[in-house]
């Protein structure tokens, strides 16, 4: 009995002194393993008389149960200790100060949108919006584009079947320009009208200067006695403010758009070299937008009498404006979600475009 008590004390002390799970396992094997001290005593009971065997069996079972309980308790303690140490090493200190560098960036397209709205807003224009999914009347017919017009071909336009009709003319389109907003504005508002319509547009095209989805801004002014001179003055003031130049050479070349007559393309002066493009005085010209006087058929489609009212319209690509102003060479990179690109070309989210507080806020750019 005394030998069992001393053995118990020795084994329990070894278990209590185990500092990790490896030492704990060594203590377990030494006591209850195949060659453990308790196991050896249980094997030796076969040589004892029956009365002693029964009595020794009871004592050894009690000893074994106490050792197993001690082992379980110590294992739980060591496992908890090990987990706490691991958690302490992997802890993230959320009280660390934020980085000095602003992490978020405003996309150049969003920045140009702000700048365009700020400039035309100063001129008294309102922002108008319309649906991305259009019917063919608003996207084509009302804009003086007949059924055989090249812009309506399948290779240029994304068509959406109309489940309620098998007639192709009843199918919908993902709008190819923001001009349908002009028609919807004329349908819902009486002249005088002065709006810009920025938004996404879609065409089946993809290269360095074209993407299937891009951004446009259209402008529309309708009133009595509106002339081409009003159009030229409006656009000249816009390009000066947008490129932040006191003077900029401009010219207008005759062109053709089905929804304006006469139509023109506006060029701005620039200087082109092998390594850069500089907007302003120079020996070269760069086409920047299309414009013209609203065609009488378009006014009629919008419910406005062309004998009483006339107006002008213009349209330009927001993505193209961003490329020209901020020196971005490839349009496809606008939509690749590259954080490094956005960090380089993006803008501080706390800098807002305004005609009084600063338009482009170049100091807020990440570049």
Can you walk me through this structure?
The protein folds into two domains: 2-89; 108-364, BirA Bifunctional Protein, domain 2 (2-Layer Sandwich), CATH 3.30.930. The protein has helices spanning 2-17, 21-32, 37-43, 50-89, 108-122, 136-139, 180-188, 228-242, 296-301, 318-326, 339-345; strands at residues 126-127, 133-135, 159-160, 172-174, 193-202, 213-223, 250-257, 260-272, 277-279, 284-294, 310-317. The strands form two sheets. Strands 1, 5, 6, 7, 8, 9, 10 and 11 form an eight-stranded mixed beta sheet that branches. With 367 residues, it is of the alpha+beta class.
What is the CATH first-level class name of the largest domain?
Answer: Alpha Beta
For the record, the count of structural domains works out to 2
Structural class: alpha+beta
**Global morphology:** elongated
- Any low-confidence stretches, pLDDT <50, length ≥5? 363-367
* CATH fold-level label of the largest domain: BirA Bifunctional Protein, domain 2
Major beta-sheet overview: 8 strands, mixed
Fraction of residues in β-strands: 15-25%
The termini sit apart by: 85 Å
Cα-atom radius of gyration = 40 Å
Quick overview of this protein structure:
This protein has helices at residues 2-17, 21-32, 37-43, 50-89, 108-122, 136-139, 180-188, 228-242, 296-301, 318-326, 339-345; strands spanning 126-127, 133-135, 159-160, 172-174, 193-202, 213-223, 250-257, 260-272, 277-279, 284-294, 310-317. Residues 363-367 have low confidence and may be disordered.
């Amino acid at each position: 009995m005394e030998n069992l008590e001393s053995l118990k004390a020795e084994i329990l002390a070894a278990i209590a002194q185990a500092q990790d799970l490896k030492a704990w396992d060594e203590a377990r094997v030494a006591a209850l393993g195949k060659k453990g001290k308790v196991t050896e005593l249980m094997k030796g009971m076969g040589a004892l008389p029956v009365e002693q065997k029964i009595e020794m069996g009871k004592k050894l079972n009690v000893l074994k149960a106490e050792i197993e309980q001690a082992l379980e308790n110590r294992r739980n303690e060591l496992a908890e200790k090990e987990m706490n140490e691991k958690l302490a090493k992997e802890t993230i200190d959320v009280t660390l100060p934020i980085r000095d560098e602003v992490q978020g960036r405003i996309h150049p397209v969003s920045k140009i949108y702000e700048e365009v709205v700020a400039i035309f807003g100063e001129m008294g224009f309102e922002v108008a919006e319309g649906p991305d999914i259009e019917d063919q009347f608003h996207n084509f017919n009302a804009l003086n584009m007949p059924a055989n017009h090249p812009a309506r071909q399948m290779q240029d336009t994304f068509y959406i079947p109309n489940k309620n009709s098998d007639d192709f003319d009843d199918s919908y389109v993902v709008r190819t320009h923001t001009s349908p907003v002009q028609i919807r504005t004329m349908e819902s508002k009486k002249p005088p009208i002065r709006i810009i319509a920025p938004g996404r547009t879609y065409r089946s095209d993809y290269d360095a200067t074209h993407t299937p989805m891009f951004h446009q801004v259209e402008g529309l002014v309708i009133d009595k006695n509106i002339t081409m001179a009003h159009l030229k003055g409006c656009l000249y003031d816009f390009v000066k403010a947008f490129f932040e130049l006191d003077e900029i050479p401009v010219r207008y070349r005759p062109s053709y758009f089905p929804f304006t007559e006469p139509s023109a393309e506006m060029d701005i002066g620039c200087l082109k070299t092998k390594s850069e493009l500089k907007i302003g005085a120079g020996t070269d010209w760069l086409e920047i937008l299309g414009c013209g006087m609203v065609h009488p058929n378009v006014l009629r489609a919008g419910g406005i009498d062309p004998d009483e009212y006339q107006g002008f319209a213009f349209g330009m690509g927001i993505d193209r404006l961003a490329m020209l102003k901020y020196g971005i060479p490839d349009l496809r990179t606008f939509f690749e979600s590259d954080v490094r690109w956005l960090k380089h070309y993006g803008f501080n989210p706390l800098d807002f475009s305004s005609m009084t507080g600063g338009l482009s806020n170049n100091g807020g750019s990440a570049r």
